[in-house]
Amino acid sequence: MVKSRSTLTGLQLIVMVVLRVAMGWLLLYEGIGRAMNSSWSLTGYLSGSRGFLAEYFKSLTTHSSVMYSFEIINEWGLIFIGMGLIFGLLSRFFSLVGLIFVLIGYLSHPPFFGLNYASVIQGSYLIVNELFILFFLFLLFILLPTSQIVGLDRFIFGKK
Questions:
Q1: Rounded distance between C-alpha atoms, residue 46 and residue 85, angstroms
Q2: Phi and psi angles of residue 49, each rounded to the nearest 5 degrees, phi first
Q3: Is the separation of the CB atoms in 47 and 58 below 8 Å?
């Protein structure tokens, strides 16, 4: 059973807030990097898709106007998710959006046995990768919204 927000110890709260802000920084910086890098392409990423949904993700890349929209949503989505987590503003909403982002990324490039990808960015994985872990971190931020204690959500929704 998960502890409620009101029963978090001071140290638990500090660790959760630092984790939320650090993850926010990671996503904010990633979004800014993608927005500023003209060579970054969601089309290129989805073209390398493998697994049971690969054909669906690859089919999306044939529509340039749709892909352009998805790239803008991806870049600015990461920026807004990051800022929301850093400032503790609508953090449950932004955590849900982030959870959807990483789920799409995981499903488009699942780290399953026998799936080989053209480029390996950070290592070799089997089932658990960064996206898998980020999924559960976002879920944790939804279940334990520290932003209602330390963050702008406190002023919007009141301290719980």
A1: 26
A2: -60, 145
A3: yes
Regions of the chain where pLDDT drops below 50 = 1-5
CA–CA distance, 23 with 70 (Å, rounded to integer)? 22
Q: How far apart are CA 111 and CA 6, in angstroms?
A: 37
Which structure tokens are listed for 1?
């059973």
Q: How many residues does the chain have?
A: 160
Spatial contact of 89 and 145, defined as CB atoms under 8 Å apart: no
Q: Are 86 and 21 in contact (CB under 8 A)?
A: yes
- Integer CA distances (angstroms), 117 to 31, 50, 56, 105, 112, in order: 23, 8, 17, 14, 11
Tokens in use for 120? 């390996």
Distance, in Å, from the CA atom of 77 to the CA atom of 18, rounded to the nearest integer, reads: 21
For every residue of 11-72, DSSP letters joined together read HHHHHHHHHHHHHHHHHHHHHHHHHH-TT--HHHHHHT--STTHHHHHHHTT-HHHHHHHHH
- The whole-number pLDDT of residue 39 equals 84
Give me the pLDDT at residue 3, please. Answer: 46
- The rounded mean pLDDT for the chain is 86
Q: What percent of the chain has pLDDT over 70?
A: 87
